[in-house]
Batch of 2 targets.
Target 1
Amino acid sequence: MVRSVTTTSRLAAALLAFGLAAGAALAAPTSTKFEPQMEVQGTRLQLNGAGTRYRAIFKVYDMGLYTTKKVTTAAELLALPGAKRLQFTALRELPGTDLGRLFLKGMNDNSPKDRVQRHALASTRLIEVFSGRSKMLPGESFAMEFVPGKGTTFYILGKAQGEPVGDDEFFQMVLKIWVGESPADHLLRDALLGQDKE
């Protein structure tokens, strides 16, 4: 009986230590160095926050959110006018079809069905851009950039993938993939909104 209790205690201690280590890893800075500022078609943006997307314990990509001014809540972000940019760096091999499918799922999980249908053409373009590439390799970058009155432009390896699509409402749907009520990763959402600091 004593041996059983001791074994159980050791197992519990090991699991606790693993959990603490995992938590520390999730809170660690991104391996990607995101520039503190960038210019988007004449508008200077600042890095609002950056974090790492995890699936289970595996790193998927680093992500930075650029805005015209600092925001700390999803409501502030969605109400903020002006240009915005989402910058990504792949941390593992990412099949393009998986990216497109997951982005669409994120929009469906966080926006009303009629709104998603209203922006079907822009959503289809998003899927085509990423599904048209067999895979993203570790270290490769991609981005989504919104400019009022012009729409959203998708970039892969710094190169624009066609003309801008959609409007402000469409880009809000894109943002909600990461900051909506059912975000892709809760810890990443907090990091993008600068809520992961002590």
Target 2
Amino acid sequence: MTVEMREGHEGTGPGAITPDGCAVQLYERLPVGDEPEVIAAAVPAGAHILELGSGVGRVTHPLLEGGFTVTAVDESAAMLSRLRGARTICGPIEDLDLGEKFDVVMLASFLVHAGDEEVRRGMLRTCARHVAEGGCVLIQREGADYHTDVPRQRVSPSGFTVRIASSEPVGEGVNSVHVEYLFPDATWTQTFLARPLTKDQFESALAEAGLEVDAYLTPDEVWVRAVPKA
């Protein structure tokens, strides 16, 4: 089946590629980092989490094992087909309206840096629309040097290399980022558009959606807990 790629996005390598250039088989191989621990420390035990952009469930599955209930949303049916144990919903995040509220809404994977500002606005409105009274929104944002410390690479203990090869301005505050994933038996690449946001710009984007920062959860301020504005 041919998938229409989103403008400015491209992916190469074995297996299915999603509209934003992500390779399904690649994400099945990537290990989970410290995300589940960061999330678990920031929200009530057993919370019902609306995970926006779940992919194949790298974070979903550890959260389920940790006693959380997860509703997983992704625009890729191929990604969602790899999930087990979560309720799944296939569709664009920016258009989502389930008519439900959740203890926690999570927007990870730097999705808040979508190159298209209207998509970002829609995603943040989705977060605000679905968070319950007294609940919170967890957002993962880019590190301060994400677009300037390039090229850079990291070798995983499991034996593959992730290389951020380039981040080049393409106009209107947007960069085109090219990433390579080098495994002993396969190589994947992804090119995507990302909009760098200063801390002030990020907080202004939250405010526009009716949200405000409650706490920066990690020393690098990549993980943020936001709440509806009082």
